[in-house]
């Protein structure tokens, strides 16, 4: 095998798009493991969670950015800043849009921002959820989007079902710069396990509570204790902003938080490949949205939330 054939490539790929466009689902499909939480509630990805995929001699490091939307609160502003920060730091950017929603005002705003912010990186368009529309609608959407921006490539995909994902991953592998690999081969996420554990619990809360769940909620892993038998004890705190929210999270006779804990423990055991003892507490912190420490726990910059 010649040196040219064995040349490794590596780099960062930022997935950007509106909330709920399917970025987390695509990341998990690309990486082949559950790294970023997936829910049907928008704005659930807060931290810049990275997943690592290997394609041939290329190592693709995905930056799963929060959805880009019109921010109102400090937390929202910090999330949007994190999204654009992830895009600016990336070698390649993938804009993900939903086939059935077409070119929304939000998509137009992202495209305009890309014209200013994407300086030099190739930007690919991924049209997701293609199984929801007819072929002629897809073709028109692709044509209209490429008239708005000079995309380096356009890919029709279904992140959920896997259609077209291999083609996109192959293009990314060829497009990344020549470089030694950035992570050990067996490492699929560079997010600390404590943060991944907190994200998994927050996902279960979101799925369990649906519309009842206020966004003023965060989960922190307070302690992680390795045990001699190979298992781990994880203590987590669920912070809510009001007393009334605490009751919602606990549920009748603690049933809700118990169910959340069981579901999170199952996922954590699958993720880590070992027995997990998970203990959850619910605490009221009225001003947690204004505490810099909470933002650091989520991988966000508190200052980015300033108006």
From TrEMBL:
Keyword flag Nucleotide-binding: yes
Any single biological process term in GO: ribosomal small subunit assembly
Molecular-function GO terms, alphabetical: GTP binding; GTPase activity; ribosomal small subunit binding; small ribosomal subunit rRNA binding
TM ranges: none
Membrane topology (UniProt): Peripheral membrane protein
Domain (Era-type G): residue spans on this chain: 9-178
Compartment annotation: Cytoplasm; Cell membrane
Protein task: An essential GTPase that binds both GDP and GTP, with rapid nucleotide exchange. Plays a role in 16S rRNA processing and 30S ribosomal subunit biogenesis and possibly also in cell cycle regulation and energy metabolism.
Subunit structure: Monomer.
Family note: Belongs to the TRAFAC class TrmE-Era-EngA-EngB-Septin-like GTPase superfamily. Era GTPase family.
Protein name from the UniProt record: GTPase Era
Origin species: Pacificitalea manganoxidans
Gene name of this polypeptide: era
């Amino acid at each position: 095998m010649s040196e040219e054939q064995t040349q490794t490539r590596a780099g960062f790929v930022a997935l950007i798009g509106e909330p709920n466009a399917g970025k987390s689902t695509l990341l998990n499909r690309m990486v082949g493991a559950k790294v970023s939480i997936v829910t049907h509630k928008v704005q659930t990805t807060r931290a810049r969670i990275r997943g690592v995929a290997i394609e041939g001699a290329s190592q693709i490091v995905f930056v799963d950015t929060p959805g880009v939307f019109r921010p109102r609160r400090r937390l929202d502003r910090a999330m949007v800043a994190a999204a654009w920060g992830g895009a600016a730091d990336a070698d390649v950017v993938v804009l993900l849009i939903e086939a059935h929603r077409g070119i929304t005002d939000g998509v137009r705003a992202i495209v305009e921002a890309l014209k200013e912010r994407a300086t030099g990186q190739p930007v690919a368009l991924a049209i997701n959820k293609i199984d929801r529309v007819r072929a002629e609608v897809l073709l028109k959407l692709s044509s209209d989007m490429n008239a708005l921006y000079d995309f380096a490539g356009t890919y029709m995909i279904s992140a959920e079902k896997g259609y077209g994902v291999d083609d996109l991953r192959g293009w990314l592998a060829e497009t990344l710069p020549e470089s030694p690999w950035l992570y050990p081969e067996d490492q699929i996420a560079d997010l600390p396990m404590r943060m991944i554990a907190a994200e998994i619990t927050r996902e279960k809360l979101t799925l369990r509570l649906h519309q009842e769940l206020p966004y003023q909620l965060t989960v922190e892993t307070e302690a992680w204790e390795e045990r001699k038998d190979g298992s781990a004890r994880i203590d987590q705190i669920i912070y809510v902003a009001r007393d009334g929210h605490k009751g919602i999270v606990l549920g009748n006779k603690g049933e809700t938080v118990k169910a959340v804990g069981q579901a999170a423990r199952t996922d954590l055991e699958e993720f880590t490949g070992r027995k997990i003892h998970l203990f959850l507490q619910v605490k009221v912190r009225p001003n947690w949205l204004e505490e810099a420490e909470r933002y650091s726990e989520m991988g966000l910059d508190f200052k980015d939330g300033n108006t």
